[in-house]
Amino acid sequence: MRGTARGERIWFSPHGLAVAPGTTVRFVNEDAGNSHTATAYHPDNYDRARRIPSAAASWDSGFLMPGESFEVTLDAPGVYDYYCIPHEMAAMVGRIVVGRPGDPGWEGPAPASEDIAPEAFAALPEVGDILVSGRIGEDKP
Ligand SMILES: [Cu+2]
């Protein structure tokens, strides 16, 4: 989780990530000027339409203050879309691809729906691009 000093721009870095099933992912708020969340699109979270595999449990970091972190282990193969509660409308969203198409139980990306703003949907990287590069949108130190 990153942001400019005055908060004009905020983002997940990376916002596209490929991992193997069973990987534990850690979200760290490295933005000194804002609190953020990493929240799965799932009915358990504010009744949002599900955009993670059906076999996966819902997850929500809650608000992370600067320096705080949250971990989630992703077991079910497929595509996981998540957002930051206060900044979804600023397209602070991300996508994690767990495993590869063809893995047992694989569930591909959820289609666009009325539940997700077009700006947020458009900010989700393509699954193929994530699989090719492994990480998308990661800030270079
Ligand atoms: Cu945020």
Structural summary, described in words:
The chain has a 5-stranded mixed β-sheet with strand order 5-7-8-3-9. It has helices at residues 118-122, 127-133, and strands at 2-3, 10-11, 16-19, 23-28, 39-40, 69-74, 78-83, 93-98, 135-136. It has a single domain, classed as Sandwich (Immunoglobulin-like). The mean pLDDT is 96. By secondary structure, the protein is mainly beta. The chain is built from 2 helices and 9 strands. 40% of the residues are buried. The protein is 9% helix and 26% strand. Copper (II) ion binds at residues 10, 36, 84, 86-87, 92. Copper (II) ion binds next to loops.
Bound molecules: copper (II) ion
C-alpha termini separation: 14 Å
Choose one word for the global shape.
Answer: globular
Described by strand count, sense and barrel closure, the largest sheet is:
5 strands, mixed
CATH-defined fold name: Immunoglobulin-like
- The value of Rg in angstroms is 14 Å
Number of helices: 2
Q: How many strands?
A: 9
Percent strand: 25-35%
Summarize model confidence as the mean pLDDT.
96
